[in-house]
Every structure is written in structure tokens, then in C-alpha cells.
Amino acid sequence: MANALLTFPWALGYVTELLSGEFHAPFGRSSHHQVWSEAMVVSPLVRGLLGIEVGDAGRHLRFAPQLPADWDRLTVRRVAAAASRVDFGLERAAGRLTITETVTAGPPPALSLAPAFPLDARIHSVTVDGSAARFRAKAEGDVQRIEVDVPAGGAAPRRIVFAYDEGTDVFTRISVPDAGSASEGLRVLRSRVEGGALRLLVEGRAGRSYRIGVRSPRRLGNAPGVTVTPSARGADLLVSFEGAAGAYARRSIVLPLR
What is the pTM of this model? Predict the structure, then answer.
């Protein structure tokens, strides 16, 4: 989201090649309106958020979305795989994630799915058009990927349903600082459930407090310098930072899960 928001502060379509690490401003020698400048917005979206990969000369398509914890739906249209065009839809409800695949042009490519779930989520089953399908769980950083190979053919659109016990995930609100101002936003460097606790590694300006949303079916315990307020989907955290005035401070936070 921070990358996507870079399209708004200056002229329309102006995405600078280089940013100052201290102030929200482009370097005087940096270029814009170039493929490699726009790629810093497009690549994190297509490869990171959506996890779209095309292989085998367009005959194989992989869709491995990793959505922010506060997103419940997503639509992607006209994904190109050789002569094929494919639409994807994703909807997330309590204990259920549904992905639909609709081939709108060309032959259907072989499809692999690998949506991301929190490490403490427990997957019970995966069905493809109502029939049970084999799946593999693979840990990847702070998430787990549930990998499924979808056989060719079948109904249109294809409907793949993941049934699971929900896990614990966090989210923040991203905003772009004013042009020329110093970075002030919260930095979530790591978020994972381990040993019965939510473990966060975060950075923020000393003397400030930041809000973090938690999506979890479990109740969170307390930690020093953190105010925990229960919410409909989990909890809201208010995290305070101490240290030298104006400098970024790093905190390692452990919140027990019950």
C-alpha cells in the first residue's frame, strides 16, 4: 500500500525512481515516467499481494494471494497466460475462503493455488467444485501457504473452497506523509504466532503511540506499553515507543493468546 500510494503525491503518473530515506521527496537526480519507476508499484501488487506467476509458456498459472488481514474480498480481471485470459475472485468469511476462477478467453491453463494463512490457522479441507482435493501446507516466513493443484476442465467458473479454523494476523493503516516531511509511520517488521503468543517486531517514533489491528478468534493478553482493547474481530492495540526524542525505536512485543 505504501508503494501504491506513491502515485498520488506529485503529478499524475509521476513515480520517482529514487526516494530519500529521511524525507518524503525524490532525489534531484532521480527519473520518473519510466518502466522501472512504475514497476515499483506494479511488481509488489502482481507478484507480492496477488502472487501471480505464469509458466510453461503460458500453459501454467499460479495464484498465491496474501491479503492484508482487514481485506475480505478481491477481484482480478484479465490475467494473461499465453492466449488465455482468466478472472479471479476471492471472498473471505468466518472459517471459509472461496476462490473462483473464470476463463474468459482461450483454453484453460493448468492452475495452482497457494493462498496465505496465519501460522496458527488450521486447514480442515479444500474442495474443488464440491469435490475434496489434496492440499499441502508450506511454512513461508510469517505465514503458511496452502497449495492446491486444480485439475483442468470442470465447471465454469471453478470454485475452490478452503475450510479452516481462523488464525491470528495484524494490520495497520498506511498513509503517505506530506511532501518534504520526515517519515513518521509505524513499521511492522515481523508478525507471527509462536509458542502460544503473538510476537511482533515493530518500529515507531519515540514518544508516539500507534494503533495496530489484530484479527483473531482468540483473546489477547497484555504486554508492557501496549493497551489491548477487544474488538468484533479480535483486538485493537495501542503501542507506545520510548527512546531519544524524534528517533525511531524498535520494540519486540509478546502478547499471550488464550
Answer: 0.90
